[in-house]
Amino acid sequence: MKIIGTGSALPEKSVTNDMLAGFLDTSDSWITTRTGIHERRLLSTETLRELAMKAGRAALESSGVRPEDIDYLICSNVANSYVSPSLGSIILGPLGCCCPTFDLNGACAGLVYALDMADAFLKTNRARKILIVAAEQPSRFCDWHDRATSVLFGDGAAALVVTEGEGFIDFRLTGDTHTDVMYYKRSLEPTPYDRVEEKTTPLVMEGREVFRLAVEASIRDVDALLGRNGLTGADIDMFLLHQANMRIIECIRQHLEQPKEKFPTNIQHYGNTSSASIGILMDELSRAGRLKNGATLLLSAFGGGFVTGAALMKWSEIQYK
Ligand code: UT7
User: Fold this and answer.
1) C-alpha of residue 170 to centroid of ligand 1, in Å
2) Is 272 a catalytic residue?
3) 3-state SS of the chain: helix, strand, coil percent to 5?
């Protein structure tokens, strides 16, 4: 499998740390020092559907593939206002695609999960051209009175078009049950038979424990991918890591003993955009001409579950109009 098109979309509204300090007991210096985040984009007048469509259209346009020639749409999304139909179904028709679609919830690792699944579809001839759209609005599952979680996230979408090719070399996905360290619960409809009272609980996160799990898991995945492919950190041109916290990225970088230039970031401006984060970063780097033909990339993400996904790949340059 190789990537032949990329796209991303971000909300217009930028919210700085100082703006948050206007209604939360927080400060620019706390957020910047602990996370590296200076501002984030939040949906206000646009919708998640519109962001997903914009990213999807940009990816299709850069790939040169017509929407009607896409034969699978995989959508990565943690939550949106519809439980059913899927976000994939909602954007499929308006994008001009006519193919099977489903949403997957791999939390912040969702894009790597989607890539792994697309790779399997291509290898088994289930599809030849696949559109992946990761669209997330974590701002809508945070409690905006909780300074420990709401300051961390931003909304955004990214999309990739993939087809057969020599790009992806190896994947490593993992899962482990740690449902208590990070969760968002939505209430279900009551029934006369199930008396368990449920209520919606906005995002609950044990920040320190998630930090520890994230660093440990990402290092384990990266080391495993490098080791089993006979590579070291020095062989990787760029590490595209989930943008959750600058300090997590720095811990992984220090473990690998590689220079900062190999760890591009955009968390400063967008915060944690969940499964869209690596895709947005990839699109921006690719459009800026920073991903060279044949460059070896290592992607690594982690998220609620606890799940992780990492991928080793060679980049093929994309020509944008
Ligand atoms: O995609 C995966 C999503 N999640 C993550 O990746 C999160 C991973 N964890 C983290 O990034 C970090 O743990 C945080 C950034 C969430 C928190 O940083 P920390 O260094 O682990 O801080 P802490 O939770 O230990 O809190 C330190 C202090 C506490 O006060 P006390 O108890 O020491 O008096 C918190 O109440 O900072 C306080 N605090 C804040 N203060 C100002 C927590 N949030 C804030 C805030 N502003 N926004």
Assistant:
1) 34
2) yes
3) 40, 25, 35
